[in-house]
Amino acid sequence: MLENLGKPIIFTGSLIPAECIYTDMKRNLILSLMVANCRQLTEVCILFDDTLYRANRCIKVSRGSLRPYDSPHFPPLAVMEGAMRLLGPLLRPQPHGKLRVMPHMDTKVLVLELGPCTPLDALLLAVETTQAKAVILACYGSGNAPSRGHFMPQLIQKAQARHLLVVVTTQNRYGSVNLREYELGRRLLELGAVGAGNMTQEATFVKLKYLFGIGLSAETVRSYLTKDLRGEISDVSPKL
């Protein structure tokens, strides 16, 4: 949503209430102010427990730990080791151009999480009645799904008949989607599904909302989905 961002935006908070003498709020706030003064950073970040993350790579994994966020597929941008140490090669390049704010987000994205006993009828009904422009299928592992009967082909074909873009993510915290790894995944590719690579499900959801929100067609969104726009996705080396 922020194109050509030339300064850091830092999100932080605390897990221990501010009125407690041992709250983590003070340290998180002080470190965030230090990082916000760093000219090398030109992106949106999250800072907790002496660690700075790229925000669009993060997921929340705990409500009780002092380190509530994890970045499964991308290392921290900075860590506190006596002093805050920025990992320069990981940072986004300096922008060229004027800041552009794009506030329009298309909210019509359907998310379906698959399970061992998920009834096909319920999924088909969701696809038939949705007003969404895209469907995210949260599958297993590298993009695998129930293989009984024609479960997945029916679902994909129903979505295609309604001109919905179908995107496959994984329910695993670690590991990326590779639809070429298994026979069913290859079948999904043939039917027109798109793998989300190593984007988190949250990043995939917001990216779809953003791309549709700026008025792109489904085919154009498909082409941009696996391209790196703000550091939210990276290439994964194929297995030998």
What's the Cα radius of gyration?
A: 20 Å
- State the end-to-end CA separation: 37 Å
Q: How many discrete structural domains?
A: 2
**How many β-strand stretches?**
13
Biggest β-sheet, characterized?
5 strands, mixed
- Note the run of SSEs as H and E: EEHEEEEEEEEHEHEHEHH
Enumerate the strands of the largest sheet in spatial order, edge to edge or round the barrel: 2-3-4-7-8
Q: Tell me what portion of residues adopts beta-strand conformation.
A: 15-25%
Q: Which architecture name of the largest domain does CATH use?
A: 3-Layer(aba) Sandwich
| Overall pLDDT confidence | 90
Number of helices: 6
Binned, the helix content reads 25-40%
Q: Which class best fits the helix and strand makeup?
A: alpha/beta
Can you tell me the overall shape?
A: globular
CATH topology annotation of the largest domain: Rossmann fold
Low-confidence stretches: none
CATH top level assignment of the largest domain: Alpha Beta
Organism: Strigomonas culicis
Domain L-asparaginase N-terminal: 1-83
Domain Asparaginase/glutaminase C-terminal: 108-224
Enzyme class: hydrolase
Structure commentary:
Pfam families: Asparaginase, Asparaginase_C. This protein is α/β, with parallel strands linked by helices. It folds into two domains: 2-90, L-asparaginase, N-terminal domain (Rossmann fold, 3-Layer(aba) Sandwich); 102-226, Rossmann fold. The chain contains six helices and 13 strands. It has helices at 25-36, 120-129, 151-161, 183-191, 201-213, 218-225, and strands at residues 2-3, 9-11, 44-48, 51-54, 59-60, 69-70, 78-81, 83-86, 100-101, 109-113, 134-139, 165-170, 194-195. Helix 2 runs parallel beside helix 3 (151-161) and helix 3 packs parallel to helix 4 (183-191). The longest helix is centred in the C-terminal third of the chain and has 13 residues, at 201-213. The protein is globular. The two termini are 37 Å apart. The mean pLDDT is 90.
